[in-house]
Amino acid sequence: MVANMHQRKTEMALHSDCFIDLPGGYGTLEELLEVITWAQLGIHDKPVGLLNVDGYYNFFLTFIDKAVDDGFIKPSERHIFVSAPNPKELVQKLEKTGETVGEVRMVANMHQRKAEMALHSDCFIALPGGYGTLEELLEVITLARLGIHDKPVGLLNVDGYYNFFLNFIDKAVDDGFIKPSERHIFVSAPNPKELVQKLEVS
């Protein structure tokens, strides 16, 4: 808990490994511009990313580009932040800035990796992925089902990527292989903002 907005921003700047901006309103935009300005002034050198879901920030990005063309923003400062239309591409761009997103922990094997992930995570979010992603998602769901953890589990269903998987789970419920109450161990949403909202109330 913080006393005011200034303390909130100070705590955010102090404890963040990077700054990622989701689609939002005035407050979101103000905080984005503040961390960009801090970087411009040399107050921090942490990566800054803009998640441009469904082109939400297209007009803002065009505005910034015009400000560069008109000489109000230096061309070198245009690259203080990166943007991408989906989380995977954004993380890749943030990693290329020279800073690693989050904390890096070296582990001996996959079992230790999962144990570390379970121990240090506040929640679990699965992005679109392959067999490994699906296996890890099902493992944390199973661990929740067994009462081993009670952390929120979310599925980021970008562009309906997981629609058929969700249909499969619903069919498994209908056929009696999964209890109806267990269908709600995880939540899903098509965009990060909605997913975070669901995770906060789950």
TrEMBL record:
EC number: 3.2.2.n1
Function, as annotated: Cytokinin-activating enzyme working in the direct activation pathway. Phosphoribohydrolase that converts inactive cytokinin nucleotides to the biologically active free-base forms.
Species: Striga hermonthica (Purple witchweed)
Reactions mediated catalytically: 9-ribosyl-trans-zeatin 5'-phosphate + H2O = trans-zeatin + D-ribose 5-phosphate; N(6)-(dimethylallyl)adenosine 5'-phosphate + H2O = N(6)-dimethylallyladenine + D-ribose 5-phosphate
PANTHER family registered for this protein in UniProt: CYTOKININ RIBOSIDE 5'-MONOPHOSPHATE PHOSPHORIBOHYDROLASE LOG5, LOG FAMILY PROTEIN YJL055W
Keywords assigned by UniProt, alphabetized: Cytokinin biosynthesis, Hydrolase
One GO BP annotation of this record: cytokinin biosynthetic process
Name this protein carries in UniProt: Cytokinin riboside 5'-monophosphate phosphoribohydrolase
Domain of life assignment: Eukaryota
GO MF, any single term: hydrolase activity, hydrolyzing N-glycosyl compounds
Listed GO CC annotations: cytosol; nucleus
Family from the record: Belongs to the LOG family.
NCBIfam families from the UniProt entry: Rossman fold protein, TIGR00730 family (TIGR00730)
One Pfam entry name: Lysine_decarbox
